[in-house]
Amino acid sequence: MKLLMCIDDTDNLGSPGTGEILENIGKGIVNNGWGQVSYITRHQFLIHEDIKYTSHNSSMCFLIETDFEDCSGLSHEECRDQITAYGMNYLLENGAEGSDPGLCITDLEKISPEETGKLMAFGSRAKKEVLSKEAAYRLAEEIEGVHLSEHGGTGDGVIGAIAGCGLRLTGNDGKVKGKIKVDDPGKIITAKELKKRYNAEAVRAVPNHIEIEDDCMILIGDEIKAVYSHYQMTLPVCVNEDPDTSVQAEWRTCTKKQLKGI
Fold first, then answer.
1. Helices and strands (H and E) in the chain: how many
2. Among the residues of the chain, which ranges form H helices?
3. Angle at which helices 157-170 and 113-126 cross, to 10°
4. Which residues of 112-150 are buried (b: 16+ CB within 10 A; e: fewer)?
5. Is 227 left (phi over 0), alpha (psi -120 to 50) or beta?
6. How far apart (Å, rounded) are the C-alpha atoms in residues 198 and 206?
7. Any idea where the domains of the chain sit in the sequence?
8. What pTM does this model have?
9. Alpha-carbon gap, residue 25 to 14, rounded angstroms
10. Helix, strand, or coil here: 179?
């Protein structure tokens, strides 16, 4: 069984962030023997005066993978329902004062390609339009494999929660949560070595997202940030314009500034 879980609007400026809350839910899922969780992706939405948000107007999402043995013999539906109940209860108990938490769980084995397209389209709209809670619920009601619920305040977090699932489904949106500690800035290594060192699945060029071959040489810069591209945890690289190292390395890891907007 594969589920996407996405949460939004769970924090305030003085509380643990939404990403940390989702991490804690993930630990509970693993500790209860319900399955394993992936890295978390952060999905950015429209910044607009009519949209309430804490700092960035973004949601957090991860993939849950579970099987018959993980759930101690529970059926698909029983295991999914336990995970859903756990997520709902965690948000009820841990949503910050003044927040408007929303939870979306998408059962990837229960949604059709057409329904997947609807979710992706809603996610894309959330990056460009001011959407309503009513629109989020209408979409969830159309799709049998989607759970959508609110857990405090206005409940407007349901918009970002279902939109975040849609964006994760595109395979080409979001940054991977967490800072990467750069071990050796200035060192030149192959793309294969870069992936191994930082536990990534791919190295791709910005802005065209072409995959870099394993034997290509890359200059490690002061910053490294992983993104979600082609359904993989990806390290983006840019053309190395440093005349002192460009002969040895055609590419270099991107700065945060270079990654804005991707």
1. 7, 13
2. 18-31, 76-94, 113-126, 133-142, 157-170, 191-197, 256-259
3. 120
4. eeebbebbbebbebbeeeebebebbbebbeebebbbbbb
5. beta
6. 18
7. 2-174, 179-259
8. 0.90
9. 20
10. coil
For the segment 167-205, what is each residue's pLDDT rounded down to a tens digit? Answer: 999 999 999 999 899 988 999 999 999 999 999 999 999
Judge whether 215 and 190 are in contact, CB under 8 Å. Answer: yes
Structure tokens at 248: 């040895």
pLDDT of residue 85: 96
Tokens of 40: 């978390």
Tell me the per-residue pLDDT of 203-246, one tens digit each, with 9 for 90 and over.
999 888 899 999 999 999 998 999 999 999 999 999 999 888 88
Confidence of residue 17 (pLDDT cuts 50, 70, 90): confident
Q: In this structure, what are the phi and psi dihedrals at residue 204, rounded to the nearest 5 degrees?
A: -135, 150
**Using CA atoms, how far apart are residues 45 and 81, in angstroms rounded to an integer?**
29
Q: Dihedrals φ, ψ of 7, to 5°?
A: -130, 155
Distance CA 110, CA 232 (A): 22
DSSP three-state, residue 257: helix
The CATH label, of 3.60.15.10, 3.40.30.10, 3.30.70.2200, 3.40.1800.10, for the domain at 2-174 is 3.30.70.2200
Q: How many residues does the chain have?
A: 262
DSSP-derived secondary structure for 31-83 = HTTS-EE---EEEE----TTS--SSS-EEEEEEEE--TTTTTT--HHHHHHHH
Tokens of 63: 């993939």
Is the pLDDT at 19 greater than 60? The verdict is: yes
Q: Kindly tell me if the per-residue pLDDT of 53 is higher than 80.
A: no
At 235 the three-state DSSP class reads strand
